[in-house]
Protein 1
Amino acid sequence: MSSAERYNALKGIQDIYPPEIYIWQEVEKTARDVFSTYGFQELRAPIIEPTDIFVRSIGETTDIVEKEMYTFSDKAGRSITLRPEGTAPLVRCYVQNHLYNLPSPQKFFYSGPMFRYERPQKGRFRQFYQIGVEALGSSDPKLDAEIISMLKLFFERLGLKELNYDVNSIGCEKCRPDYKISLLNFFSDKIDRLCPDCKRRYEYNPLRILDCKVDECITLKAGAPRVIDFLCGGCRAHFDVVLSLLNLLNVPYEINTNMVRGLDYYTRTTFEVTTKQLGAQNAVAAGGRYDRLVEEFGGPPTPAIGFAIGMERVVELLQSSNKQDIPNPKVFIATIGAPAEKESLIIANKLRENGVWVEIGYAGNSLKSQLRKADRLSSDYVLIIGDDEISSGKVKWKHLSDGTQGEIPFSEVYDFLT
Ligand code: ATP
Ligand code: MG
C-alpha cells in the first residue's frame, strides 16, 4: 500500500467540500423551509443504535439487514449498527421519550448520514445522506396526500421538475397474506429461474421478488398478481382517498403496482420519486406508511408515514441543471505597506461585525497578486490602501464586475459597503 493510498477515505465514502457544499446547503435549507410550513420540527437521533433496532424493524430478510449493515461489537461486546436509515431510530426515540403523549400527529424531520455496505457506483455510496420526515399518530389519508405533495413542493422549490411520482398500496396485515399466497402460486413454477436471492425471498419474503433488480427476475415477474387487487375494504378505501386527494393537489402520480419498497415495516401507501436523468439509480426519494412500527417498538398503536430523500442524487440533479449559486466575498482589501495592513484589519473587523464577508491579502503579496486573488474570489469590491491613502485619509475602491471606481474617506467605507 503506498502512503498516498493509505490516507484515502474508505471505498464508497466521499468528501463534500466547496463549491459543491453550497448545493448541499441549499437543499438542506429548502427542506427546512418547506417542511416547517407543514409543521415538521427537527429531531436528531443518534447515528449508532443497538443492532436489534434495525433487524426487527427493517426485517431480517431484507437486503439491508442481510448484507448491507455496518455492524460491529463495542468494547463491552454489544452489537452496534451504524444507522442504514432514519425511520427506526426516530421511532425508537419517539417511543422511548413518550413523544406520543403530545398532540397527534407529531411531525418531525431529520437529516444526516446513513451507512450501507453496498456496491459503490454512480448514485450509490456506503455513507450517503438523507433528509427525511415522519408524521406519527394519524391514519388519515389526508396526511399521505399532504406528505407527497410536500415532497413535490420541495422539488419544485429547488427547480427540479421532470420527476415521476409513483404510488402504490401494499395493504395491511389483513389483506397481505392472501396476496402472498397468490404471489407464491404465480412464482411456484418459476423458482428455478429466479436469482439466488429471490429463491430465498420466495421462502421468506415473496413480496421482495417484485423489488429485485436482476434482469431475469424482472422478466419473470411480468404478469404477477397485483397487490392492489387484493386490498381489504379499509386499505382500498384509504388508497382511493389518497389518490383522489393527490388529484386535488395536482400531484402527477402514477400507480406502480410493483413498487413494494425494500423495508418490511411499510403498510398501505408506498411512494417513490424517480427521475430519468440519473441512469440506474433513479430514485431520489421514497417513503410510505408504517402503521404497526410504533407498536412493534413497544409504543401505543400509532399509525405513521414518512419519506427519505437521497441527498447525493438530488445534488447531482441540481449540478446537471447548472443552477449553482456560489457565494462570493463582498470586499477584498488589498494593501501596500505595514500601516495600510493595520488599517485594513480594522476596516475588515468593522465590516465583519456588520455581517459583510471581507477578505484581505496575506504575507506581503504584491498589489498585482492581491488584485488577481480578488478577481479569482469574485469579490464584488476591492479596496486599495497604501501609504498615500493612509496620509490622505481616503481609500480607493473598485467595483470588479463593471469596473467603476472612486475614492472615499475611511469613515464612509462602512455606509458605502453595508
Ligand atoms: P434504491 O432502490 O436506490 O436502493 P432504497 O429503496 O434502498 O433505494 P430507501 O432505503 O428507501 O432506498 O432510501 C431512500 C432514498 O435514499 C433512495 O431513494 C435514494 O435516493 C437514497 N439512497 C438509498 N441508498 C443509497 C445509497 N447507498 N447511496 C446513495 N443514496 C441512497
Ligand atoms: Mg437499496
Note: The first strand starts at residue 41 and ends at 42.
Protein 2
Amino acid sequence: MVPLKQVALFISCAALGVQAAASSDQLSWDKAYVKAKSVVDQMSIEQMVNLTTGAGWGSQCVGNTRPVDDDLFPVLCLQDGPIGVRLANNVTAGLSGITVAQTFDKAAFRDRGVYMGKEFRGKGINVQLGPCIDPMRSPWAGRLWEAFGEDPYLAGVATSETVQGIQSQDVAATIKHYIGNNQETNRTTSSVVIDDRTLHEVWLYPYARGIEAGSAMVMCSYNMLNGTYACENEYTLTTILRDELGFQGATVADWGATHSTIDSANAGLDLSMPVRIYEGEDDFAKNLTQAVKDGKVKKERLAEMATRVAATYYKLKQDASDFPDGAINSTDPDSAPVVPVQDDHAKIVRDSGAAAVVLLRNEDNVLPLGDSIQKIAIVGSDGGPNPGDINNCTDGACDQGTLAMGYGSGVVTFPYLISPKEGIESAAGDNVEITYTYDDYDLDKAADISKDADVALVFANAIAGEGVDRANLSLWHNGDDLIKAVADANENTVVVIHATGPVLMPWLDHPNIKAILWPGLPGQESGNSLADVLFGKVNPSGRLTYTIAKNEEDYSAHISKEAEFEYDEKLLVGYKWFEAKDIKPLFEFGFGLSYTTFDYSDVKASVDDKEQPKVKATLQVQNTGDVDGAEIPQAYISFPESAGEPPKLLRGFDKVDVKAGKKENVSFEFGKTELSIWDVSQREWIVPSGEYTIHVGASSSDIRTSATFTL
Ligand code: NOJ
C-alpha cells in the first residue's frame, strides 16, 4: 500500500519554465492599502467607478474590471471557478469540492489549493472565483457538489486550507456565495429567512474561517436574506463581514446579483459585476458616477470601494513584474498563446481521488481484488467513456459516460478523462479478462456479462448542476434496476456510484452486493484513482461529507418554491437533524471503511486554560489489521445542555497513517473557534459554562471513546 500521507509529497516544488514562480509571501493588508490608496488618490471619479464596475465576458475572463488608465492600474481578470480554471485549455480538471472534502485531509485541501493557484497564476488570472464554501442544506441542491458538504466545521477547515493554498500562488481567492445561497430554484428572486444564531453558527462559519485565512474577495449571492438582496445587505456586507470579522478585501457581486446602485454601494458592495438583472447594462457605472456627484454615495465611500479592489491586487503582489500576462485559452490561434499549466498536477488529482474514495461496504473482504480474480465484468455507462467528446456538453450539462464533475460555471474543460474501465484495465494487467457493457437498459445483457465473472462491478451515477435542483434523489439511467440485475446474476457484486450528492439505495439489502464504493466526482484521473483502491494499492480512508438517508422525507430541508422561506431546521443541519430526531440514516456523516480495522484508546481531555479557552484531548489509534492504512479520527463536542446546541458537533479531525499492528498518537486542540456559540443579545461569540463532552470516533455515529471537561 502507498501511505496516503505521501500525497503531500507530490506537490511540485517549482513551476514549469513557462510559469513564473509565485513570489513568496503576501503583503500585509496595511501595506497593500498604502499602495492602493496612493493609486486611488490619483483617480478621477470616473476612474474609481471603473475599478468598481465589472465588465463581463468581454475577454477570455468571465469578468474584468473596466479600464482605468494603464499607467495607473491594470484591468483585473476574474475567472471561474472553484475546482480549476474554467473555459481554458491545458489545465487540470481535478476533484470537486464535495469530493476532496471526502479525504478529511488538510494536506489534500492545501495541495489542491496550491495547484489551482499555480494554474490560475500561470494563466495570468488575478482572481479565482472560488472556492465555493456554502454548507449543504438540502441534498437536492444543484450546486452542493462545488462546496465541502453538510458540516460547517469541515467546510471551514477546507475553506481555510484552500484559500491559503490558492493565495500562496499570488492569486486572489473568492469565497462564495455569501450568503444563504443553498438552492437553485428561484435563486435570484427568493428570500431566505435565517435567524441570527443560525446564520452565524452554520452559514457564516466557513466564511469566518476563509476570512481568517486571508481570503481577498467575498462574492455576494443572488438571493435575498431576510428580505434584502445579498449584494445590498448592509447587515451581512458591513456589520458582519467588516465590523465583526474584520474583512479587509473586496466584496464582489455574483454576475447580475447587483439590484441597485446607491443602496449596494452604501451597504458595502465594492465591485459590481454585469449580466444585469436590475436596470440597464451600464447603469451601475452611470448611476454611481451621478450618485457620487449628487452626494448620495460619498466620494470617500467610492474611494474605499476602489481601494479595497486595488488592495487585493497589491496584497497578492500581482504588481510584480513576473506576474504572467493573461493567456487562458488558445483554441483560436489568433488569440492568446498556449500556456500549459498542468505540471504534475495529475498526480495530485489521482492520489487525492483515491484518498477520497469512501468504502461503504466490504463483506467477505471482496475488496481489494486479489490475484485470484481472473474475470471482471464492468456494467453501466458510468463505467465507460463518454460516447462523444468528453467535453461535448456546454459547461458539462449532460450525463454521458462516467461522471467526474457536476455542471455549470464550476466546471473545468477536461484535458482527458480516464474512465473506470480504462483505469481498471491498466491496473488489472493482461491476465485478467474484462468484459463490459455500457448499455444501462439492456438488463439481460448486464446479467449475461456478469454471471460468470469472478466479480461484477456495476456503475451508476446522478448528476446535478447550476441553475436547477435535482428532481429526486434517484440514480440516473436506470441505475437501480441495473444494479439489481447485476446483483441477481453475480454473488460478488461491487456497486460504484459517482454522484454529486446523496442518492436513494433501494437495492441496499441485496445479499449479493458485497461492496459499495463512493468515489464522488474525482475529475480527470477518475479511473486510475478508483483502480488504486479496487486493487489495494491505496487502502481507502475517505469519509462521507453528508448523510445518506433511507428516505427523502428524512432530510431536514427540502427545496422551497416559495418566494420567502425559513431555514426552520435552525442549527439542525445534516447529521445534527438525524441525531436530534433519532432518525437512522443508511450511512451517516463521517462514515467510511478501510481494508484494515482500528481500535481507539480512551480519550483524555485536559483544560489548559479556562479563560481563552484551551482544551486538549489525546488518544491513541491502533491498526488492528494486517495491512497499513489511514484512519480519520473525528472529534465531536457536546456542549453544556444550557447552550441549546445540537447533540454534538464536529470540532476536529485528523488523518493518521498507521502501520499494521502499530499505534499512533492523536491529539486535538479546541479553542474559542471550536467552543463558542453566537450570543444573539450580546452580539458576540461566547463560551458557555458547564460540562462538555468530547466524543472521538470513526464517524458521527461510531463513537469509540468519550471524556468530559468543564469550562
Ligand atoms: C454565476 C455563478 O453563480 C458564479 O458562481 C460564477 O462565478 C459567476 N456566474 C461567473 O461565471
Note: The pocket of 1-deoxynojirimycin is lined by residues 62, 80-81, 129, 176-177, 254-255, 409 (CB under 6 Å).
